[in-house]
Design brief:
The chain is α/β, with parallel strands linked by helices. The chain is built from 12 helices and 19 strands. The protein folds into 2 domains: 88 residues, Roll (Urease, subunit C, domain 1); 296 residues, Metal-dependent hydrolases (TIM Barrel, Alpha-Beta Barrel). It has a 6-stranded mixed β-sheet, with no helix packed on it. The protein binds zinc ion.
Amino acid sequence: MWLTNGHWFDVESAAFRTGDIRIEDGRIAAIGDAPSGSETQDMEGRWLLPGFIDNHVHITLDTSTASGNNVWRDALPGSIAIHAAWNARRLLMCGITTARDVGGWDYHEIAVREAIDAGKIEGARLFCAGKILSMTSSSTPYYPGMYEECDGPAEIRKGARKQLAMGANLIKILASGAVNSTKYERADAIQLRPDEIDAAVEIARDNFTHVAAHAHAAEAIKNAVRCGCRSVEHGSYADDEALGLMVEHGTYLVPTFCTAHAFLKDPKFADQALPHVKERYKSREVMRQKNVRAAHKAGVKMAMGSDVGTPGNHCGENMQEPVLLVEKCGLSPSEAIIISTRHGAELLGQEENLGALARGLIADIIAVPRNPLDDITALHDVDFVMKEGVIFRDDRA
Ligand SMILES: [Zn+2]
């Protein structure tokens, strides 16, 4: 089949080109002119992009409440899996064809990944971290299905091996405190020590995968980078030294900028949160804007991650992240698209399969009705989604 009459985004030149795309056996077989008589799908002048990759999601979390305190306390186990499956489909329908889940809940997200891969349900292609390796902390009871408490390198090794044994594709660690935590835990506190992070990186490398490090504190970012974590999540308090180290080591920053915006957009919702959590979000909004701008200026490699799963930050609204990175943080529209496609694939080690419209790659293709280089908010109007050559959404049909 050929997709004809569309403009397609070339990640190499960061520009749209004209030409038809041939899909065969779930991959892009050719880009050129469709021969007459071939089976075609007329894209009617739409703007085609590689399927977007969101490198920071939590499909198991319930985002409808502002309280992060054990949201699933009264849930049936099956309810969590069904919620996660529904979220995985919402990702796909908004144009996220691939997502990295960096903290699930009792491995329900891995069951969802398997069901998607087996063709039993519709959803984004998932790469999962299983549970997050955390030191002993006051916040573990907030996330009993999401955290694996480990202290010291030996327990970290065991925790990492356990996630891989449960089907994890990567390892996620907490190198610093978190925002959605108890009042006894500071987001800018260092958590896992370098010897512990080293142990996680060792196990990941032994198993041909990588570590994603949650890190707000500057020193926690430096620990994560020096130990060889492939990505730093959030990076809120990065100083010049931390940014320089990230450039030197080629570490990806996944800025998760939209979390404060999503949390604060409805004041009534934000008022339901614990006072210290609301205060943290408020104080971070402007600070994060400066911080992501500084990282961009320093030349830190970025990959897009929305952190859907945090309160008010719903699966299906992921495109607010690339849009806000343009509107608030100084990225150009083409940069926002490239960090959401090619860079996302590189972070996952999937650049041979994903992240571009090019011959031989998996046919993950989305379309928007107007040129997103002129107006990045076009990303909110995805009306066509193809994953591995199968059309899952076509609003024109
Ligand atoms: Zn997160």
